[in-house]
Amino acid sequence: MIQQMLNIARREAERVMARRAMPKTGIVTAYDPDHYCAKVELQPEGVETGWLPIRTPWSGNEWGMFCPPTPGDEVEVGFQEGGKQAGYVKLRAFGDRLRPLSVPAGEFWVVHKSGSFLKFKNDGSVELHAAEDLNATVAGQANLAVTGKVVASATEFDLTGNVKVTGDITASGNIYDQNGAKDHIGHIRDVYDGHTHPAPGGTTNIPNQQL
After folding, report:
1. Domain boundaries, the chain
2. Could you tell me the pTM of the whole model?
3. Which of the two ends of the chain, N or C, has the fewest CB atoms closer than 10 A to its terminal CB?
4. Which tens digits make up the pLDDT trace of 77-102?
5. Strands (DSSP E) found in the chain
């Protein structure tokens, strides 16, 4: 009698569990950017799901963290309370086809397929690389406090607006104003230092005070 009751209980438990969907691995087959959803081919069954919402660690009304999958990505599919009709896309995984980078333990890297990246290193440094243009828009004031030097290198710096400097300006080349309409400041200094004026009986000497 007891054994019969145990068998009934076991069959009932198996029947309930059979109705529950367990997390599965799948391959993304499509992505909808307007609704942030994806279709997934579940493995190993090869069955394609309908549109599933993609989970994110940070979300709001038209703001949050967005890192949508690409068709071909391997993802984990979860099911809310085990419901087969309540699937959602969870985490993604690296594998033999999608190879990971070699990232030191303790570091945090965000790397795009274009080659752009943001890396937080174990030594406290932060490395930013833009494979193409780097655009920043600041609605308020941009503040930069550096205890050492600011070192920048470019073929040209274009600034729009007034420039105020507290301290000296040292240039290895020439300095032009008015878009070079009056030549560079060094040329103006040379002209002043060597200029003379007509005077009775000849010309004046060059200025005693040189620039």
Report:
1. 1-92, 101-133, 167-210
2. 0.72
3. N
4. 998 866 677 789 998 888 888 899 99
5. 24-32, 37-43, 47-48, 52-53, 59-60, 63-64, 74-79, 87-93, 108-111, 117-120, 126-129, 198-199, 202-203
